[in-house]
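REQUEST ID: PR-0412
SUBMITTED BY: lab tech R.K.
PRIORITY: routine
TASK: structure prediction, single protein chain
INPUT:
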Amino acid sequence: MTSINTARALAQPRTGTPPPAPAQDDASTTTAPRGTSVGAPLLIGGAALAVAGVVLGVRLLRPVASKVIGTVEGVELLSNPRMSRSTQKVYSWGVPKEGTVFGVAPKPAVSIEHVDQGGLGDCWNVAGMGAIAYREPETITNMVRESGDHVIVALPNRTVALTRELPLRSQDGGPGYAGRLQDDPVLWPSYIEKAQAAVLPNGYRSLEGGFGRTSFEQLLGAAPASRRSTGSVTQDIAAAFRTDRPTVVGVRSNVHEVNLHGSHEYVVTDVAGEGADLKVTLFNPWGEQHPTRALGEADLRGVINEVATPDYFI
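STATUS: complete
OUTPUT:
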């Protein structure tokens, strides 16, 4: 049996590249499809990076952080962060014409159903948001609030104010990155993601590629500790989920029979049964194309390379 720790040795940061959108989606025919990423940042020495840039003819980009452009209620107002390279030519900054920051009653203010990864390769991050919304929705409502023409987001190490502008899709004016692409979209994922991008050195590009546990670090200020696997994937997932904390798993490779996508992060939404009869239900942060059924040990063995909560990861 392949343990999760063994599989982790083969892990790569996940971007969660969704399949191409339907042909009528103009952006999908002119640029990379929704959720596409060119991959995680490569961390190598400065000299080697400079040489690689010359040899490969790549124009190296210096970090461009958002600037403080004012204050809102005494909170620093930050400029719009840099968009991802793959979408900057087809998305444009604008205020969404439809949608609310939170769901409107009788619908829930915060729900996992509000999560849709969109056109940025940060499935690890959006899955983390979805897991928090699913298990601890009050954390989201305490994190985000509106202030006139602005939105204030309280990240663990910094509270920032943002304009209501978001990267919008050219064909329908909907949110291009995190945020449900539906009628009357709910936008709290969009503004949390924008706040993260604004405090990182290279904007949205800094979010492309990562691991689910990092989302809990960035959004909750958590410090998950490493833990050994029990040797059973479903036992590991069940133990994590039954702590009642947000739980995500990383999938290393495709399992077409059950519609699992490789190099992708999922939210755990249910665990049923015991022992050999354990079954796990997963939610895809694309907001669609979820696994076709609850999954057992035979489905997940050798496929899962991360199980993470805010408290620990395997």
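NOTES: Residues 63-209 form one domain.
REVIEWED BY: pending
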